[in-house]
């Protein structure tokens, strides 16, 4: 299969690249499941952008730099923030039904989230990601120049030097497996874009969908690309705590609209007490890393399974208008948020590091781009500011598409011939239960040893276990036919290795990385950059 551009991933970043390029070029979008299965579809809060004259680029940049704890790239931050409005206007042109407010300058309601000094979050009630994804999905599905390969799992990048060590270093495409037929396809492309999202599934508790297994990060690293700041995993402070509520996020926008974090009934005489004012003067509106550590502290100190998030002091009409999705989902589990608090716990939420790129999404390998959560642009630093992620997807998606457009126009390089996938020397697996066991082991020790609070001893324990798992998985991969579970486990182990190596390198506490061995912050902030294989 030959295309001008192959896009791996169907979230906001991937679909925006596809739509910007498809007017003139043949594009294929590869999705592990349905187009709406990714993390973008789950995003509740909204998209941060300067959309009101009372706000300014300088304020948005300053808020981002503060949240990033000294590690944001100021040039990248400025580029993304200054292109925010045109990105939002593009979505409005596509037909995204953002929540209206006729009294606002732009005509849309703006909310505020933790770490923001202004109301600048444009949203579609409390299901912004879904509204955006559904709108773009309809356009992608009907576009004649876009081929969709749903239920196809990327295996590895095809790069010239792996085929011929004397060749120019260049990405030639990607191998993917049709997970329904188990047939492996070779996709050749003049340019390949990794938009596979983050790696939240490396942890036992996560707000991420099952597809968030770090595929793009792992594939790019194995292909020789640098990876940066993988120690900075953002734990969202408030995921619904319920045995049957898998990965349901309670949006930060609740705290932006006045919700309070309280100690639950199980805390005894302290039940119903706010605790965030004791941890930070911004209380519930502090950045996510501070809120997550405060919840973790209170839970461990008091032996709690969860804390409570209460917005019941707002009117039922206000809650119903602003948070219909959260209200409906909680009601499914017998929780009426207009009358009672929501039980919540922190959960792995966002991968702030990733594949090193420039402002056009270019990686270290010619022909290979990375956008969205897969990429490290320098925007997020040591901690992502709320709702900057979808903004980055839009701005860098458009920027990458523009660069690819220029490259395609300037260079008439033909689509390369690439070899077919060779599975002549593999056999059917004898015990696939081994994969399930290894998956569970990895996610549990990553949660226990490499989560919100870390020590070198815990990190070294995790590193030792990763080495053993990696040996088993590499042997399994070399000898047995591949499955989606095996491919995802292989990628997760590589990502876990990168997270732990990065965490051991950082001898300080900064942003999302908190070490009990090194509780102080060093005077000079430097990113952690790991070379590719």
Structure notes:
- With 533 residues, the chain is α/β, with parallel strands linked by helices.
- The chain has 16 helices and 20 strands.
- The chain has helices at 12-21, 57-67, 74-82, 84-94, 128-141, 160-163, 215-222, 253-256, 276-279, 288-302, 316-322, 324-332, 388-410, 433-449, 456-479, 484-505; strands at 2-8, 27-30, 47-48, 110-111, 121-122, 146-149, 152-159, 171-178, 184-194, 227-228, 233-240, 260-262, 307-310, 342-351, 354-356, 368-370, 375-376, 453-454, 514-515, 529-530.
- Strands 1, 2, 6, 7, 8, 9 and 16 form a 7-stranded mixed beta sheet that branches.
- Strand 1 (2-8), helix 1 (12-21) and strand 2 (27-30) form a beta-alpha-beta unit.
- It is globular, with a radius of gyration of 22 Å.
- The two termini are 27 Å apart.
- The relative contact order is 0.17.
- The model has no long low-confidence stretch (mean pLDDT 94).
Blueprint of the fold:
Elements: E1 2-8, H1 12-21, E2 27-30, E3 47-48, H2 57-67, H3 74-82, H4 84-94, E4 110-111, E5 121-122, H5 128-141, E6 146-149, E7 152-159, H6 160-163, E8 171-178, E9 184-194, H7 215-222, E10 227-228, E11 233-240, H8 253-256, E12 260-262, H9 276-279, H10 288-302, E13 307-310, H11 316-322, H12 324-332, E14 342-351, E15 354-356, E16 368-370, E17 375-376, H13 388-410, H14 433-449, E18 453-454, H15 456-479, H16 484-505, E19 514-515, E20 529-530
Parallel strand pairs: 1-2, 1-9, 2-6, 9-16, 15-17, 18-19
Antiparallel strand pairs: 3-5, 4-5, 7-8, 8-9, 10-15, 10-20, 11-14, 12-13, 13-14
């Amino acid at each position: 299969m030959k295309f001008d551009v192959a896009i791996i991933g169907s979230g906001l970043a991937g679909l925006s690249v596809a739509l910007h390029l498809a007017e003139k070029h043949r594009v294929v979008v590869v999705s592990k499941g349905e187009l709406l299965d990714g993390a973008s579809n789950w995003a509740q809060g909204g998209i941060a952008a300067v959309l009101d004259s009372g706000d300014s680029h300088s304020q948005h940049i300053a808020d981002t730099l503060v949240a990033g704890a000294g590690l944001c790239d100021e040039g990248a931050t400025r580029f993304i923030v200054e292109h925010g409005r045109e990105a939002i206007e593009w979505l409005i042109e596509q037909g995204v039904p953002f929540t209206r407010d006729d009294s606002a300058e732009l005509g849309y309601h703006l909310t505020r989230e933790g770490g923001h000094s202004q109301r600048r979050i444009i949203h579609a009630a409390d299901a912004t990601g879904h509204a955006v994804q559904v709108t773009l999905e309809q356009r992608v599905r009907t576009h004649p120049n876009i081929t969709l390969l749903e239920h196809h799992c990327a295996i590895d990048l095809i790069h010239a030097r792996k085929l011929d060590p004397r060749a120019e270093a260049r990405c030639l495409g990607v191998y993917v497996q049709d997970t329904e037929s188990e047939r492996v396809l070779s996709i050749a492309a003049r340019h390949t874009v990794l938009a596979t999202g983050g790696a939240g599934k490396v942890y036992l508790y996560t707000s991420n969908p099952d597809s968030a297994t770090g595929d793009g990060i792992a594939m790019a690293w194995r292909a020789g690309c640098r990876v940066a700041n993988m120690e900075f995993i953002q734990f969202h402070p408030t995921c619904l705590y319920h045995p049957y509520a898998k990965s349901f996020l309670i949006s930060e926008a609740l705290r932006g609209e006045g919700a309070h974090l309280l100690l639950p009934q199980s805390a005894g005489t302290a039940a119903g007490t706010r605790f965030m004012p004791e941890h930070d003067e911004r209380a519930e509106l502090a950045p996510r890393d501070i809120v997550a550590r405060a919840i973790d502290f209170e839970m461990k100190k008091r032996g709690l399974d969860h804390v409570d998030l209460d917005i019941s002091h707002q009117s039922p009409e206000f809650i119903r208008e602003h948070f219909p999705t959260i209200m409906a989902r909680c009601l499914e589990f017998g929780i009426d948020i207009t009358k009672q608090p929501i039980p919540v716990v922190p959960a792995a939420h966002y991968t702030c590091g990733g594949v090193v790129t420039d402002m056009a999404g270019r990686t270290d390998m010619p022909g290979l781009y990375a956008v969205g959560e897969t990429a490290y642009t320098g925007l997020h630093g040591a901690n992502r500011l709320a709702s900057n992620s979808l903004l980055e997807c839009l701005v860098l998606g458009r920027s990458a598409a523009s660069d690819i457009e220029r490259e395609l126009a300037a260079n008439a390089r033909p689509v390369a011939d690439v070899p077919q996938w060779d599975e002549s020397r593999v056999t059917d697996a004898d015990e696939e239960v081994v994969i399930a066991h290894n998956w569970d082991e990895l996610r549990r020790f990553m949660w226990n040893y490499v989560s919100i609070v870390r020590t070198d001893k815990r990190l070294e324990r995790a590193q030792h276990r990763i080495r053993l798992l990696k040996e088993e998985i590499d042997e399994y991969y070399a000898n047995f036919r591949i499955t989606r579970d095996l491919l995802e486990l292989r990628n997760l182990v590589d990502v876990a290795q990168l997270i732990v190596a990065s965490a051991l390198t950082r001898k300080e506490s900064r942003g999302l990385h908190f070490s009990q061995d090194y509780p102080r912050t060093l005077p000079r902030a430097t990113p952690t950059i790991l070379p590719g294989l």
